[in-house]
Amino acid sequence: MASLSSLCSSSPSIKSQTSIAKPLVILRKDSVTFPTRFSKTPSLVQTQSVAREISADLSNTNDVVPKKAKNGLEKDPRELWKRYVDWLYQHKELGLYLDVSRVGFTDEFVEEMEPRFQAAFKAMEELEKGAIANPDEGRMVGHYWLRKPELAPNSFLKSQIETTLDAVRKFADEVVSGKIKPPSSPEGRFTSILSVGIGGSALGPQFVAEALAPDNPPLKIRFIDNTDPAGIDHQIAQLGPELASTLVVVISKSGGTPETRNGLLEVQKAFREAGLEFAKQGVAITQENSLLDNTVRIEGWLARFPMFDWVGGRTSEMSAVGLLPAALQGIDVREMLAGASLMDEANRTTVLRNNPAALLALCWYWASDGVGSKDMVVLPYKDSLLLFSRYLQQLVMESLGKEFDLDGNRVNQGLTVYGNKGSTDQHAYIQQLREGVHNFFATFIEVLRDRPPGHDWELEPGVTCGDYLFGMLQGTRSALYANDRESVTVTVQEVTPRSVGALVALYERAVGIYASLVNINAYHQPGVEAGKKAAGEVLALQKRVLAVLNEASCKEPVEPLTIDEVAERCHTPEDIEMIYKIIAHMAANDRALIAEGSCGSPRSIKVYLGECNVDGLYA
Ligand SMILES: O=P(O)(O)OC[C@H]1O[C@H](O)[C@H](O)[C@@H](O)[C@@H]1O
Questions:
Q1: 545: CA distance to ligand 1 center in Å?
Q2: Which CA distances in Å does 110 have to 1, 121, 229, 347, 374?
Q3: What is the mean pLDDT of the chain?
C-alpha cells in the first residue's frame, strides 16, 4: 500500500530539472478515490491539479468546521490539508519540499502580485545574462554562474570560474593528501585550517563547516572573524603547537577590511613568536590587485585564489570563499554546486506556484506587508544547521535593509532575521512567539532523516529521539498557527552537500526576487561604509588624545588636564564624550603613554591620571 512516506522517499531520482513530484498519496485508499492518472510521471502542474481534486474530495464532509480566524487564516483542518496539498512545492530530485500553507495569502493577493513577479522573473533572467543588476556600484551579479559557468556572459568569465574551481580542488586535494605540507611539523601534513575573515568571508564557511564537516575532518577548521584580541588569542592558544601544521586562509574580497587585516597581523605575530615562516602556511582569497593580494605576492605566500567583483560577500559561498575551506575539510564541493545548480534551475520557471524562491518571496511579502513589518524567525530543527540563521542574517538583511529604493525614494526597507535551532529555542523565546507580541513569522527547516540508516534507537517502545524532534517541530508549528502565527516549512531529506547547496541557492534567489518586488538593489551595502568611516574617525581622534596626554605628562611637574582641556587641545570640544571614552578604554588597558625615547621611560596612563585631577574619569 502506498503511504505518505512516499512523499518523503528519496527514491531513484527522476532525471528532470524541475520539480517532478511523486504525488501526495493518502494512507487509506478508501478515504478518497485516488485518480488512476499517475500511470506516467506527472508534471508538477498535473500533480498540483490532481492534488486539488484530492483535497476537494476531502472537503466534502458533513463535519462541523470551526469558523475561519478573524484575520482570514484557515483553521478548518480539512481545508488546511487541502491548502497544504494544493500549495506544496516538491523538488523530487533534491528531495526538497516547501510548505507555504500556513501563510495566509489569498488567491486575490497572488493574482494582484502576479505582474510584479513576472517583472522580477524578467529582471532575474537579465541578471543571469550579465546585466548591471547592481546599478549603484555598476556591477554585474554573477553568483549563479559559479555553479553553471556556461551561463556567464562571456568565455573569459566562464574560464575564470572553471579554472578557479579546478585550482581550488587541486590545491585542497594536495593539502589533504600531504603532497603540499607545512615546512616543519611533526605530523608532516596540515592538520588545521585557521580562517581569517569577516562577514561574507566568514559566515558561509562557518555555516557549511557546522553543517557538513565530518566528525574527523582531514583538517579541522577554526575561525578568527573579529578584531577582538582576546578572541584571537583564544584561537591561537587552542591551536598551540598545532600552529606548525595550520593552514591560514585569509579571506577578504576587498583585501582591506580592518578586522581581517588585524587578524592577519596578529596571526603573523604568533607565527614569528613560534619561529614559523608564515608565508609557507598562508593562503589568500581576495580580488586581483587588492591590498591583500599585493601582500601575498610580495611575501610569497603558499597560494592565492581570486574573488570576482561580480560576486558579493554574502553570495560567495559557491566561490573559492566557501569551496576552499569546505574541500579542505573533506566536503564534496561538486555536490554543493550540483545542489545549488538544481535549485537554480527550478527557480527559473516563471510559474509562481512552481518556483520555490518566488513562493518564499510571496510569503515574506504577505507576512511582512512588503515593508518588513514582521521578523523572520529561522528555526532549523537540526543541530548541524545551527548557523543557518546567522548566515541568512547577512544574506537577507544586508541585501534588503536599504534606505532608498531604485527610484531614490526613502523606504527604509528590510526583513529582520533571527533564530538558532529547534527544539532548543522552544526553551528560550518560543513563549513570546506563541503568546507575546505578534511581530514575526516562522521558517521551519525540517530534516527528515534523523540518523544514518541502521543507527536509529528507540528510547521507549516505538519512539526515538528523532520522533521527539519531529514532534516538537510539528507541535510548535501547530501551536503557533493556532494562535494565528504564520510559518513556512522547508523540508530536506538530510543535511548533505547537495541539500545545503540547494538551501543556499534557494535563499539567494528568494532575496533577489523579493528585492525586485520591493524595488531595491539587493547587491550593494552603503550602510556598512558609514560605520567603517566612523570607526576610522575614532582612531584618528585617539591619536590626537594620545599626543595631548603625552605632551602634558612629559612636563615637569606633570601638567594635570581636565577632560575639557584635553578636548580643547584636540581642537574638538564637541568630541568630549568620545574623548572621555577613549581615555577610559586606554586606562582600562593600562596603556603606556609615552613611547621610549620621546620623554623618559614609558609611563602608564593610569599613573598619569592618578597624578591629575581629571574629573569624572573611570577609576
Ligand atoms: O570580504 P571583505 O571584503 O573583507 O568584506 C567582508 C564584509 O565586509 C563588509 O561588512 C560588507 O558589508 C560585507 O558584505 C562583506 O562580506
A1: 30
A2: 37, 15, 51, 17, 19
A3: 89
Of 74, 398, 486, 508, catalytic: 398
Q: Is 242 a catalytic residue?
A: no
Whether residue 227 is predicted with pLDDT greater than 90 in this model: the reply is: yes
Query: Would you say the CB of residue 316 lies under 6 angstroms from ligand 1?
Result: no
- Check pocket membership of 254 for ligand 1, CB cut-off 6 A: yes
Residue 615's pLDDT is 54
pLDDT in tens, 491-547: 999 999 999 999 999 999 999 999 999 999 999 999 988 888 889 999 999 999 999
When pLDDT is averaged across residues 154-177 and rounded to a whole number, the result is: 98
Identify the pLDDT of residue 598. 59
Instruction: Collapse the DSSP code of 376 into the 3-class scheme (helix H, G, I; strand E, B; otherwise coil) and give the result.
Output: strand
Distance (Å, whole) CA 560 – CA 403: 46
Residue 398 in contact with ligand 1 by CB distance below 6 A: yes
Tell me the fold of 145-331. Rossmann fold (3.40.50)
User: pLDDT by residue (tens digit) across 480-494?
Assistant: 999 999 999 999 999
Instruction: Tell me, using a 6 A CB cutoff, whether residue 252 lines ligand 1.
Output: yes
**E-assigned strand segments in 108-225:** 192-196, 220-224
Model confidence band, residue 600 (pLDDT cutoffs 50, 70, 90): low
Residue 509 host element (H or E): helix 497-517
Does residue 528's CB lie within 6 angstroms of at least one atom of ligand 1? yes
Positions of CATH 3.40.50.10490 in the chain: 77-129+336-524, 145-331
Tell me which of 34-48, 166-180, 227-241, 414-428 is least confident: 34-48
Predicted pLDDT of residue 32: 37
Summarised one tens digit per residue, pLDDT across range 448-460 is 999 999 999 999 9
For residue 274, what is the DSSP state? Answer: T
> Which residue, judged by its Cα, is nearest atom 16 of ligand 1?
200
CATH class in words for 527-616? mainly alpha
Known catalytic membership, residue 427: yes
Q: Could you tell me if the CB of 204 is within 6 A of ligand 1?
A: no
Helix extents (H) in 88-154: 107-129
Ligand 1 pocket test: pick from 400, 525, 532 the residue with the most ligand atoms within 8 Å of its Cβ. Answer: 525
CATH 1.10.10.10, the chain: domain bounds: 527-616
> Distance (Å, rounded) from C-alpha 171 to C-alpha 139?
30
Task: Report the topology of domain 77-129+336-524.
Answer: Rossmann fold (3.40.50)
CA 303/CA 326 separation, integer angstroms? 16
Q: Cα–Cα distance between 483 and 417 in angstroms, integer?
A: 21
**Active site annotation includes 532:** yes
Q: How many angstroms does the Cα of residue 385 sit away from the middle of ligand 1?
A: 23
Please tell me whether the interface predicted TM-score (ipTM) of this complex is above 0.90. Answer: yes
